[in-house]
């Protein structure tokens, strides 16, 4: 055991909630994660003692609030080994981070016929912002295909990247669990002269992240999947790229000066943080990062690899050919996200039956409809794990699948 | 699992396993597509209508698409109930069914209460599972879309 599992579970008050006299079995962390008491307390304490505007007012309370907000940025920079704290930009969520990149960098650098390379396993957040530029700017999108076991098929990558301006890809698929060869992909993008953008939403909460060793140009991820609050997301980028980008949203906080004739921008990161940012959320996020660091990202990864092995073996062992689990079987190559189809029972019905045991899973297309098309399915059921899950949760999932068999009588 | 027994009644599972009026109709039949963007359920309704106005009769109805047991069984039962009835009767049936599902903004008309829902009554259990109401009404909204616009696409959110 990589850490004290019981102690970790007890850190999350919601996991002791009972519904119909039975405990919650939360297997939807790929969607959003639960929050430890420490994060809840940090946000409450901040609001009770320190809350004030940031970067605007000169009284001491405002200074304390600004410091608390900036601690969130310091924590994130430390977590991902960013060379500079100022390279961390706070947004509303990772989707906004991706839109910021497409709109700010894209509008300044992409025109008709320019090529953006994506992969077939992207989340809509790394598809639609680029498709918006297809409509507005007539850029072209090329797609990296997948192998049969749900990894990237890189056979033709150099051809796909030839002449491309951008290669934007997921570090870990939110459907397949597949962890991509991030550093190698960034290197290949660089060799082709393309900007490398990493959607690290599913990766950062579960793994040791080092944006410098990746050699990435821009990385997007979110707080709410890593034990932090919703409402705050992150964009990390190399300073020279961020400095060269025009602003995304205009307003207060992001300016240096404004006259009747125009404006100049504040330095990075404030240039990209228009308006009052998610102040309370940044405080909660700092507490979440500290919590994860104390447990250790490597330990969390170790725990999830062990539980992933147990999950794959349990589901395949108990249900054999009746279950199809997408993505690689090798837990070195995947994270703890398990999308599956079960007999011919529709994922909505599967999740409905599981809910009767308080087993919380997601059913549907997982904001990855093109990938669903590649897989030849309309929907899957997805169970996803985090540090607070254990083998009993997986057993409950498997028992719930038995219930589905009973009800649908197949 | 008392709640689930209310939802997955035998008649519903029967329609799910053996959907009635499954298939397509060639033009000039009206074709309308409905989908639920949240879950990916898709329904296509084909209507072959003879006559004009409210007295026109639905001579044939076919249903295509894919989705969960609730959306598919609801579509199957709907098709069974509508065939051979007039537009006015079927609009009343749709009002009655959507009222059963607790949909807001339905303005009941005289006689709606007397409409016999038949097998469709079995979907009453969906009310205990509000997330699934959208599944149950998808085919009905698609049907109404077909009548109101002569086809096209509708979306249930």
What this model shows, in words?
Chain A has 410 residues and is α/β, with parallel strands linked by helices. Chain A is built from 14 helices and 17 strands. Chain A folds into two domains: 5-31 and 296-408, Alpha-Beta Complex (Aspartate Aminotransferase, domain 1); 41-293, Aspartate Aminotransferase, domain 2 (3-Layer(aba) Sandwich). Chain A is 40% helix and 16% strand. Chain A is globular and about 70 Å long. In chain A, the strands form five sheets. In chain A, strands 4-10-9-8-7-5-6 form a seven-stranded mixed beta sheet, with helices on both faces. Chain A has a four-stranded antiparallel beta sheet with strand order 13-14-17-16, covered by helices on one side. In chain A, helix 2 (37-49) runs antiparallel to helix 10 (279-295), helix 3 packs across helix 10 (279-295) and helix 4 runs parallel beside helix 5 (128-137). Chain B has one domain (2-155): Sufe protein. Chain: A, CATH 3.90.1010. With 157 residues, chain B is α+β, with helices and mostly antiparallel strands. The two termini of chain B are 28 Å apart. The mean pLDDT of chain B is 88. In chain B, strands 3-2-1-4 form a four-stranded mixed beta sheet, with helices on one face. The interface between A and B is medium-sized, with 18 and 19 residues.
């Amino acid at each position: 055991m990589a850490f004290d599992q019981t102690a970790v579970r007890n850190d999350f008050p919601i996991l002791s909630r009972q519904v119909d006299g039975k405990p919650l079995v939360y297997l939807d962390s790929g969607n959003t994660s639960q929050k430890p008491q420490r994060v809840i307390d940090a946000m409450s304490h901040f609001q009770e003692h320190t809350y004030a505007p940031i970067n605007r007012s000169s009284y001491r309370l405002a200074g304390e609030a600004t410091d608390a907000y900036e601690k969130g940025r310091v924590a994130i920079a430390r977590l991902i080994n960013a060379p500079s704290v100022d390279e961390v930009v706070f947004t509303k969520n990772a989707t906004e981070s991706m839109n910021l990149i497409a709109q700010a960098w894209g509008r300044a650098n992409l025109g008709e016929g320019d090529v953006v390379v994506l992969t077939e396993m992207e989340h809509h957040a790394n598809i639609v912002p680029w498709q918006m530029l297809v409509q507005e700017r007539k850029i072209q999108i090329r797609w990296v295909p997948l192998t049969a076991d749900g990894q990237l098929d890189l056979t033709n990558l150099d051809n796909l990247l030839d002449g491309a301006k951008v290669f934007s890809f997921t570090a870990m698929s939110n459907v397949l669990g597949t962890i991509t060869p991030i550093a190698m992909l960034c290197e290949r993008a660089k060799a082709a002269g393309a900007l490398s953008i990493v959607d690290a939403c599913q990766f950062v909460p579960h793994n040791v992240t080092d944006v410098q060793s990746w050699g990435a140009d821009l990385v997007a991820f979110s707080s709410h999947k890593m034990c932090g609050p919703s409402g705050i997301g992150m964009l990390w980028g190399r300073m020279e790229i961020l400095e060269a980008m025009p602003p995304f949203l205009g307003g207060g906080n992001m300016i240096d000066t404004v006259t009747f004739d125009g404006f100049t921008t504040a330095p990075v990161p404030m240039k990209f943080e228009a308006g009052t940012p998610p102040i309370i959320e940044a405080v909660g996020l700092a507490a979440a990062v500290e919590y994860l660091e104390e447990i250790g990202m490597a330990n969390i990864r170790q725990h999830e690899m062990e539980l992933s092995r147990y999950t794959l073996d349990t589901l395949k062992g108990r249900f054999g050919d009746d279950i199809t689990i997408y993505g690689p079987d090798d837990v070195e190559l995947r994270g703890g996200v398990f999308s599956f189809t079960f007999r011919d029972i529709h994922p909505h019905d599967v999740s409905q039956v599981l809910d009767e045991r308080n087993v919380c899973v997601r059913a549907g297309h997982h904001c990855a409809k093109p990938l669903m098309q590649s897989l030849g399915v309309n929907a899957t059921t997805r169970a996803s794990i985090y540090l607070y899950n254990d083998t009993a949760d997986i057993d409950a999932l498997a028992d719930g699948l038995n219930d589905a068999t009973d009800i649908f009588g197949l | 699992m008392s709640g689930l027994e209310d939802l997955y009644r035998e008649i519903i599972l029967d329609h799910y396993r053996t959907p009635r009026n499954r298939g397509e109709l060639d033009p000039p039949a009206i074709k309308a597509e409905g989908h639920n963007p949240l879950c990916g359920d898709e329904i296509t309704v084909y209507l072959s209508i003879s006559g004009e106005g409210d007295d026109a009769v639905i001579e044939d109805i076919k249903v295509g698409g894919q989705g969960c047991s609730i959306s598919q069984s609801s579509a199957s039962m709907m098709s069974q109930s509508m065939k051979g009835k007039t537009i006015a009767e079927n609009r009343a049936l749709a009002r009655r069914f959507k009222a059963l599902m607790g949909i807001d903004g339905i303005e009941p008309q005289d006689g709606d209460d007397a409409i016999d829902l038949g097998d469709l009554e079995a979907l009453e259990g969906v009310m205990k599972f509000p997330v699934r109401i959208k599944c149950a009404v998808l085919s009905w909204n698609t049907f109404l879309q077909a009548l109101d616009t002569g086809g096209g696409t509708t979306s249930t959110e």
